[in-house]
Write a structure and sequence with these properties.
The complex is a heterodimer of chains A (528) and B (341). Chain A is α+β, with helices and mostly antiparallel strands and 528 residues long. Among the domains of chain A are: 95 residues, Aldehyde oxidase/xanthine dehydrogenase, a/b hammerhead (Aldehyde Oxidoreductase, domain 3, Alpha-Beta Complex); 84 residues, Aldehyde oxidase/xanthine dehydrogenase, molybdopterin binding domain (Aldehyde Oxidoreductase, domain 4). Chain A has 14 helices and 20 strands. Chain A has a seven-stranded mixed sheet, with helices on both faces. A five-stranded mixed sheet of chain A has the order 10-18-17-16-11, sandwiched between helices. In chain A, strands 7-3-9 form a three-stranded antiparallel sheet. In chain A, a hairpin with a 5-residue loop joins strand 16 and strand 17. The longest helix of chain A is centred in the C-terminal third of the chain and has 17 residues. Chain A is globular. With 341 residues, chain B is of the alpha+beta class. Chain B folds into two domains: 163 residues, 2-Layer Sandwich (Aldehyde Oxidoreductase, domain 4), CATH 3.30.365.10; 145 residues, Aldehyde Oxidoreductase, domain 4 (2-Layer Sandwich). In chain B, the strands form three sheets. A four-stranded mixed sheet of chain B has the order 1-9-10-11. The two termini of chain B are 23 Å apart. The chains are: A alpha+beta (528), B alpha+beta (341). At the A-B interface, strand 1, strand 10, strand 11, helix 6 and strand 14 of A face strand 1, helix 1, strand 9, strand 10 and helix 4 of B. Strand 1 of chain A pairs parallel with strand 11 of chain B, so a sheet runs across the interface.
Chain lengths: 528, 341
Amino acid sequence: MLEMRKDIFADERADNLKEVGQPTQRQDMLGHVTGTSAYYDDHRFANLLHLKILRSPHAHARIRSIDDAAASRAPGVKRIIRAADVPVNLNTLLSLIQFGKDDEPSLATDVVRYKGEPILGVVATSERAAREALELVRISYDPLPAVFDVEEALKPGAVSVNPVYPKNTFEYHGKYDHQKLRFGAVEQAFAQADFVSEERYQMSPIEHAPTETNGSIAVPDTNGRFTVYTSTQALFFSLDTSAKINAMPSNQLHFIGGTVGGGFGGKVDTLTEPLAILAARLTGAPVRYRLSRHEEMQFGSPRGAERIYVKDGVMRDGRIVARQVRAYFDAGAYTRLSSYAVVKCVAHIPGPYTIPNVHADVFCVFTNRTPATAMRGFGVTALDFALECQMDKDAVAIGMDPLEFRLLNAYRDGDMKAHRREAKNCALIECAQVAAEKANWPLRDEFRKMSSKKDGGAERAGVADRTRMSTPAAPVRTGTSAPQRVTYERPAGSTSPPPIQSTPPATPPAGSTHGVRRFSSVFGTRRR
Amino acid sequence: MARHRGRGVATINYPIGMNLGGDPSQALVHSNPTGKFTVALSSIDLGQGMKSVTRQICAETLGIPVEDVYVDTADSDTGPHCMGSFASRGTHRVGNAVMAAAREARAVMMEAAAEELEVDPGDLETDGRGSIHVKGAPHRAISVRDVAIAAQFRQGKTISGRGIFLVPLSDVNPETGEMSPATCYAHACQIVDLEVDDETGEVTVLKMTSAYELGRAINPKLVEQQLVGGSWMGMSHALFETPEPYYPDTREGPRDFNEYLMPGPGDICPHDIVVLERPAPDGPFGAKGPGEMCANPSLPAIANAIYDAVGVRIDELPITPEKVLRALKVRGRPEAPPRVR
């Protein structure tokens, strides 16, 4: 059941709207419930050809030779597509925003770097004919050692996965193997904290499991254009990626999509369109390339797994004074979007709490597994799991109610966040209060009276101001078994964090003061 | 051998949109000659309700009934650029672009109406039911249909509008991580009640109670659908799913839905949902986005509730019965597990 609490924040909102706020039936409801909405694969074409992909059986191997002679003579086969047929074989998705280097081939050339990596395509008159022809392709491999663990991959002498990033880490700012976050001084704060704990969290990969697997149909149109029916989550992202890989002007491509059978992040990677278009160009016929369920499960990109270490310094009165995070994102063999998730993760640290000292190093690591990609909560879901489990452990350690512990540390309007932006429009406290009330989770009066709009800012607002302060260490309270009396409202000055050495001055973000202007068809001119 | 009940909580926030490369979306809005409007987008409806949300935003801005607006998406020949449907950006970014386009179209519509009624456009208002009238004088009115006909055939005006919403690129400081990652954040708190069977290791989620703050619920039914589905997905992530059950070891990968575990209808629990609205200053009618964040609190809230029930911390997902039993074995089966609360 859904209940709207219009009374909360009512003063910030006009509730005189006519259409917005109404539970109007969806525009596409009739089509969906009668099964007549047209998804990409509902379009029918005479002489449709089918593209199937030969995938690597090895996690890491050198390709010695490929013999496709028998396959090319098999019944129904119209065309074999090999890496040499792809106009721009090497690409990285975020090249559209000039982030990262081209590191992933559409079809493998000399080395395969994960089990399931595409090597060769067969275009045939039926999916079955294409599958049977794939059985006839003979490839000889020299298997290579592989690495699957993110921390193993960072050790000296580890197997190098991706030749564009030979040390197995994405390169940030042209010089670092990770993205940093530095705010305050964690080491000093840890030294003065009453409790310090460090924990390890391990996420699992996840399959997006959409009802409709990834796929597209490319159809030669008149005048040299191609119409592409697609399941993409990002129409122009896929269009521009396809144009790049096929070395075509973007206006030769007409993408039609918009009605998609579930995405959850797994349909951003443009897994099928570039090769479907290439196959249509090479054969002059409409070509469909759709992933089987097995391909979708194992070789369509999953949510990657992250390993996260969290170290907290907590005072007995409930204040978190320091938080340090070291995290490893398992990108698999190629970058795709994992490099971006790392930045999003860093921006999210230390969670929705005001903590005066925060330190993080987050790595995008290459391993010999299916490249990971975006999924609902990209870069944040894992961190929330780690931080919220950590919050629970912290609360137990100091004998405090876990929800009151969160309320005490919750960020409020006017506070400074670790990425050095002021917190505004906060509502964590109110969500916690409302959920507690609804679930009969007892909160003491002081916590029920808290507000995101009160008691933020002041010395919680600055980086430089706070770091210049030299207040005595917070009073240490005794007794850890019973819930602590805490300083609820945190009046300015009275509960300031322990003394902290000065932070490096906030410098302007790199890139804002220098850089070459580049042009991207998707994003226009931008600095770099 | 017993079933132990536990309760856990998590509080989270979530950034709306991405900004790594700059984050734009465009929209075009135009009327046909009889006053029915089309919104042209290249944004994707993944089932989340993109078409419906933008339709309501457009109708509200134009001041006409929602039935008189149709959203056409996604055709790259007719729909202007959109980054895509991800990062919880649809309602906020595309909604803003549609609002801007609808405002421009509305201005032309009001000018055309003013010309027909021989008044100043500033003296006119829409009634939201398909009519435009002089403020305070509802009888001096003209239908949107007649305005569109007049604009097209007499006045030579295009009742149309263009809109773009752009959150500019934010660079990231390599040394400190300073950046502007998002302009607004959604919030949530979830409390999970569950039961752990210490003989089988099975975890049964009994109830979820959640509060979500979303800026503005453009369509409460679509919001509810997201929140219910997201919590299910979070629960599934916490307890069931993975294509690599022995990660980082790669053996035993599932190939289909027979081998890939997900909760079934019998695993779904009652869910009490409360929605709060603290409008985002830069959101369309204050809206943020419920899409991704609603899946996030369930994972830690479930892990914390398991600790509350049986006193073991499982810090590796998914929390399978095997992991619960192994942890209980290490810990020893407690008569009375330590209480968190």
